[in-house]
Design a protein that fits this description.
Blueprint lengths: L1 H8 L6 E4 L1 H9 L5 H14 L3 E6 L19 H8 L7 E7 L5 H4 L10 E6 L4 H13 L3 E6 L7 H12 L5 E6 L6 H18 L2 E6 L6 H11 L3 E4 L13 H7 L7 H17 L8 H8 L5 H8 L5 H11 L1
Parallel strand pairs: 1-2, 1-8, 2-3, 3-4, 4-5, 5-6, 6-7, 7-8
Amino acid sequence: MEKELTKLMSYRPDIRVLDATLRDGGLVNDFFFTDDFVRALYETNAKAGVDYMEFGYKASKEMFDVNAYGKWKFCDDENIASIVGDKENGPKIAVMADVGRCDFRNDIRSRSDSPIDLIRVATYLHQMPGAIEMIEDAKNKGYEVSCNIMAISNGQEADIRVALDLLGQSPVDVIYIVDSYGSLYPETLARVCDVYLEAAAKYNKKLGVHAHNNQQLAFANTIEAVGDGVDYLDATYASMGRGAGNCAMELLLGFLKNPKYREYEAFRFVEKYMNALKEDGIVWGYDLQYLMTGLLNQHPRTAIAFTKENRKDYAEFYKELTALD
C-alpha cells in the first residue's frame, strides 16, 4: 500500500500529453474551427504545459472535397505556420495521416521545410504494409513518427503480435494502443498493455494510448495505461471527439502530478471556448447510443447516425444493434 501511495504522489518525467481536440474533435464538426479558436487552443496548450498539439489530418485533396471540410482536414503547412508562428515556447506540432487516405509522398514535406514535428500514422491491422511504408517515408524526412493501430478490440491477439513485430522492426518511435470503439475495460487494457510492453521492450519503442469514452472509461483506461508504463497520453478538451469523445484533458492534467501541467488553463479554455461550441449546437459526448456500441464492441457509426437523426428510441436502437450481431 505504501509503495502504491508513493507512486500516486509522484510523477514519471517520461510522460507526454498530446492534445487531439482539433483532429478527433474535427470529426464532429467537419473541421470547421475558427482561427480564433485554434490560436486560443494553441496558446492554452502552451500555458498548460501540453507537450504536443495535433492539428488534424493530412488528407488527400484528391479523395476529399476541400469545400466540404475545414482546413484542418488537410493541415497545409502554411495554415499551421499562420497559427503557431515561431513556436519557440509552444507544444510540438502533430498531424495524423491515414493509410490509404493521404498523398504522403507529396503532401508531407521534409521536416526542415515544415512546422510539423510528429507524423501520426493511423492504420488497421490489414493495412500494416502501407503503414510501414508511410512510417519509413516520414522518418526519412526527419520527423518523429508514431503509429495508431485502430480497432484492436476486433483483432486477434496473434495478428496484433505480428503487427507489433513489424512496427518494432520499423523506425517508428511510438506505438499507440487505440480503443477505437470505447469497448475496453481497465482490466482488459492491462492485458493489452502487457502484449504491447513486451514488444516495446524488445524493440526499444515508446507506447501511447488513445481512449474513447463510450462506456465513460476513457479517463480510467488512460490512468490504467499510465500505471502500466505507457508514456504518450492523448486527451481532448471537454472530451471533444468522434461520437462519445475521448479522455478529457482537464481530467488528465488534474491527475498527472508533474507541476509543468496546469489544469487551470484547461478549465479556462473549456469555459470560454468548448462550452461555446456546445451552445452553437455541436454535439458530442457520452450518451446511451454510444454506450450500446461500446458494450457490443461495434463501430460507433450507427450511433453517430442515430444522434444526427435526433432519435430518442434507445431501446429500439439497441434491438437494431443486437440484430446486427
